[in-house]
Amino acid sequence: AQTVTQSQPEMSVQEAETVTLSCTYDTSESDYYLFWYKQPPSRQMILVIRQEAYKQQNATENRFSVNFQKAAKSFSLKISDSQLGDAAMYFCASRKGAQKLVFGQGTRLTINP
Amino acid sequence: DAGITQSPRYKITETGRQVTLMCHQTWSHSYMFWYRQDLGHGLRLIYYSAAADITDKGEVPDGYVVSRSKTENFPLTLESATRSQTSVYFCASSVTPLGSLNTEAFFGQGTRLTVV
What we know:
- The complex is a heterodimer of chains A (113) and B (116).
- Chain A is an all-beta fold and 113 residues long.
- Chain A has strands spanning 3-5, 10-14, 19-21, 24-26, 32-39, 46-52, 60-61, 64-69, 74-79, 88-96, 101-103, 107-112.
- Chain A is globular.
- With 116 residues, chain B is mainly beta.
- Helices cover 0% and strands 50% of the residues of chain B.
- Chain B contains no helices and 11 strands.
- In chain B, strands 2, 4, 5, 6, 9, 10 and 11 form a 7-stranded mixed sheet that branches. In chain B, strands 1-3-8-7 form a 4-stranded antiparallel sheet, with no helix packed on it.
- Chain A binds chain B through residues 4, 6, 9, 31, 33, 35, 42-45, 47, 50, 52, 91, 95, 97-106, and chain B through 31, 33, 35, 40-45, 48, 50, 58-59, 88, 90, 92, 94, 96, 101-105, 107, 109-110.
């Protein structure tokens, strides 16, 4: 079975600084996908970034990047130049093939002005 | 409007009552999902559906029933609501093109259900 663990219930960072959110996962599959979703107070789930497990290169989307360590089953999210609008719950998720998406418990990120 | 919509956004019901949460998507996505979000648990999968008339259990299916008679609709029914089912419920959909596994899920705005 797939499991996803986020060990940081809450994180805070000063505006304009960099923060890293941790995620570990467990899967027996060789082909899978990893995602980070953002959930602002509006409750809408927004895809931030995704990583294909077969790709060694870490995914990057503007200020968001991941550190994907396949052997360690680690998938952390780095947010550079943090902005007030980045404040939200962040969920790490994994997906085996075309089936269900499994989420971690979430990390609440606060941005301090 | 295109997208995925849930209704109602908020619902209060009494213990023992049946309640149905609606989910509608306009993309003709094959896959649809129901999750519940609870503090400390993240999002947990209740049921999912790969296509019309095909449904399967997720992580926490007890007390819930789903149906998928049409591709665009995926209602979730609580047959006899309990206080432990107080939660925020999210519906999601995704498409799986043939030969591609790189799919993201699109979420509705959630339904906050309170069982009193």
